[in-house]
Here is the input.
Amino acid sequence: MHSDSGVCSSVADCGSLDAAIFEWRLALGEHAVQDGHAAMLRFGMDTCSQLRQIDAVITPDRQEQLSVLVKIARYHEITLYPISTGHNWGYGSAKPAVDHCVIVDLAKLKRIITMDVELGLITIEPGVTQADLRAYLDQHKLPFLVPVTGAGPSCSLIGNALERGYGVTPVADHFQAVTSLEAILPNGELYRSPLTATSKAGAPSQVFKWGIGPYLDGLFAQGNFGIVTQMTIALARRPQQVKAFYFWVEHDADLERVVVAVREVLQIVGSNVGGINLMSSARVLAMSVPYPEELAEENAALSAATIDALAKQHGITAWTGVGSVYGSREHVKASCAVIRRLLAPHVKRIMFADRGRVQLLQKLVRLLPAKFSANLPAMIDKMAGGLDLMEGIPNEIALPLAYWKSGVTPPSSKLDPARDACGLLWYAPIIPMRAQAVRDYLTMVRSECARFGIEPAVTLTSLSERGFDSTLPILFKRDHSCQEARALQGYRALFAAGKALGFVPYRVASQFMDLVVDAEQTCWRMAQTMQQSIDPGGVMANGRYSLCGVKEQRATENKD
Here is the structure.
């Protein structure tokens, strides 16, 4: 039970739960509430087999139902765990941070409420996915880019923004693009961003992100202060031209010079350039070559020597770089000249390609005899898929990575790594864009990965001219208990070793909240004080980026 004293527990009383389910069904309809068994069938799947006990699932289909839903939970002292679509693969999917939560599935809230074409502001509900927005923009012939991610078309825009996700389009920081939001607080009250709350009915959406007074909207990102019901996002306009650039770094020892050159590109060319990715040979192999299980060592990983041999066999260099340029044709031409000047001295080769060139390459390669073009069609199709993402067109090109070691063949469409029993955990620390910091990070990653049987399939993605986010997919067979145990241990070892060097993830999976939440740090204690003030009963997402629930989680992890 939860108590008003601020002492948190994640276990709901059975009688209270039954009574709450009865009241939710009266308020929302019988169809909108499923009990624990049905809940586990729908949302118990994740890319890690570690289970959470889910007591029920509520699926509202109207925003107006949420206040009543929350008030019932508050009265019966039951913890809710809101999700947008649950497609947070590798970060916990729909899995709550602690046991005995009731999931609030917002996938049916799919309205696109307003679109301000002049200002590029769109207001949406949590169930609106990348695919939904793309269809809306195409239907109305609106010249804007979807803020895409590699997670694919079925993922929620609001969910990704609240996790502070990022992409490759010009508005790369997706929470930075949020100008206002509305949310239901744990007491059932409606929260609105300050300038929106004080505006007259029918007035334009808030155009200044920070509003006035304390910036409270940020509490809802990676927090548990309420259920976000709608959000206004600034969209990037479709430019006159989008051009991709690719570069190949032949030797790992050249990486430091390339990091400096990438930083100079971002400093000089600036907002014309989207995110720049530096992918290790292991990462490129994981995205393009079937997993050679017969070559894996006893610890269920490919050795560094095997990765090097496979990379050489398939013509993959130590590092592969991918970036994008946006703007008028004049802007793009000038930007490409600067990029070539800065990168060319440090890389084996650099190439620029727009939509027309990629389509021409697709036609030409299919005219070549098979013996001369064995891998070219697939490579060029991936280039086309990557260009789609750069142009704000969502696709599933990045999702097969999750299947690489799973033993499962990816379906041709509608990929779902959790449903398809893939083993995946994301380790995603922030790395300063300094050559030595990058080298120190890679040395640590390669050492820890070797210890725990993990391929170091690293990507470095620029977040700004100052830092990279590094994504490392920890891949394993989910039905192989030893592999999964090593993956979980490996994640914790990577986290600890990275933290010792100052490299901490910008987000973690729901089962790893205990690694980031620290009662010794003032910021977490302050957040707890605020949470207990607004949510003394622990109604909202207990254990999610908060001290409340961490003890229960640690006890569960230790028992396992």
Notes: Residues 241-353+396-507 form a domain with the Vanillyl-alcohol Oxidase; Chain A, domain 3 fold (CATH 3.40.462.10).
